Amino acid sequence: MTAAELIEQVQSQYEGELTEADAWPDGQAWVGVPPVDVLKMAQFIVDAWGPLHLSTISGNDRGGHIDVIYHFVADGVSLNVRAAVDKAVDEIETITPVVPAAIMYEREINDMFGVEITGHPDPRRLILPEDWPEGDYPLRRDDIGAEEGEENNG
């Protein structure tokens, strides 16, 4: 399957909202969903192409929101699912009920970006020590301002 075919299948079969759907020439597929639909999208991916591989979950501070990006390999295609989490909300639902491998990656996103993973089965810190100051997240760009964060991060 190609990235374009995968995107076509998502667009025709996924019943939730898509904020983006792009196939890149290098074989990557990018799909965006609202944060409230990330578990629904994960379930769709598992049902459509399971078993699949979750490579990692990454984050990207974009100023007013944090992109939480789930990097899957589905049917030989690099499938990246992006959810833009508003910093005023700062939470997203866990996908561990359908993708158990997400458990450690989600803890890392919480530690490094401060995005709360609701419903997570093990919300302990993963990277930061227990005495790390609350509200201080190493990969957030709050201290440099949104404009500079957008310019240097995107």
Topology:
Elements: H1 3-13, E1 20-23, E2 28-32, H2 38-49, E3 53-61, E4 65-74, E5 77-86, E6 91-93, H3 102-113, E7 116-118, H4 146-152
Parallel strand pairs: 2-5, 6-7
Antiparallel strand pairs: 1-2, 3-4, 4-5
Note down, in words, how this protein is organized.
The chain has 154 residues and is an alpha/beta fold. The protein has a single domain (3-152), classed as Beta Polymerase, domain 2, CATH 3.30.460. It contains four helices and seven strands. The strands form two sheets. A five-stranded mixed sheet has the order 1-2-5-4-3. Strand 4 (65-74) and strand 5 (77-86) form a beta hairpin. The longest helix is centred in the first third of the chain and has 12 residues, at 38-49. The mean pLDDT is 91.
| Domain count | 1
Described by strand count, sense and barrel closure, the largest sheet is: 5 strands, mixed
Report the CATH C-level class.
Alpha Beta
Task: Note the overall shape.
Answer: globular
The helix-and-strand class reads alpha/beta
CATH superfamily: NADH:ubiquinone oxidoreductase Nqo5 subunit
How do the strands of the widest beta sheet line up side by side? Answer: 1-2-5-4-3
Q: What's the helix-strand series?
A: HEEHEEEEHEH
Radius of gyration: 16 Å
The helicity comes to: 25-40%
- Number of strand segments: 7
In round numbers, the mean pLDDT is: 91
Instruction: State the CATH topology.
Output: Beta Polymerase, domain 2
Number of helices: 4
